[in-house]
Amino acid sequence: MSTTQNEVLAAALRNSLENKLINLRVQQNELTIVINAEDVPDASKILRDNSALMFDTLIDLCGIDYLTYGDDLSIKYDLRNRRFAVIYHLLSVERNQRLRVRVFAENNEFPMVHSVTEVWPTANWFEREAFDLYGIVFADHPDLRRILTDYGFIGSPFRKDFPITGHVEMRYDEQQKRVIYQPVSIEPREITPLVIREEHYGDSES
């Protein structure tokens, strides 16, 4: 998108979203806006239905965990101690323009954002994935349940504080004739490879 297109789109976003627009900036030659979690239902309909915007297609939706971001990035992204966010990538087929929307969950202990499945039905599985991997709850989702991990999985594997080994492991028990869950038996360890080279290996020949 050219600079002129970005400017026109930015003006349309400011006029249509008004006080729902918290932040607007250009990243990777694409506009990124920030809106509050409570404004997601109304703002989504505006983005889709406003004649100057017409973002009829949701290309992607994902969660993000800002736990380990440094102070500089926290200021840049205006985190304000908010850990989780949902990122929406929108496309207007009619106007051939794209938009990135960032929404921060207000509660770090119970991150929740309103579902946009009524506005963009393709959000269904994307929201389930963000729920499964990040533990972000999408209010009013029609079928919010895990989609990638096992039914008995504990925790949110894409969170920055999730242990690499996980919390439990599963195996098939021959005696019980079923899959069982048990505490992780792998001990955390750091593996340093041992490299052995011949004497004078790599020396230049005289």
Question: Could you describe the 3D structure shown?
Answer:
By secondary structure, the protein is α/β, with parallel strands linked by helices. It has one domain (3-148): Beta Polymerase, domain 2. 21% of the residues lie in helices and 28% in strands. A five-stranded mixed sheet has the order 1-2-5-4-3. Strands 6-7 form a two-stranded parallel ribbon. β1 (21-27) and β2 (30-36) form a beta hairpin. The longest helix has 15 residues, at 3-17.
Q: pLDDT below 50 for ≥5 consecutive residues: which ranges?
A: none
In spatial order, strands of the major sheet run: 1-2-5-4-3
How many helical elements? 4
Largest sheet: 5 strands, mixed
Number of separate domains: 1
Structural class: alpha/beta
| Terminal-residue CA separation | 58 Å
By CATH, the topology is Beta Polymerase, domain 2
SSE diagram, text form:
Blueprint lengths: L2 H15 L3 E7 L2 E7 L3 H10 L7 E9 L5 H6 L7 E9 L4 E8 L7 E3 L8 H12 L2 E3 L28 E6 L4 E6 L23
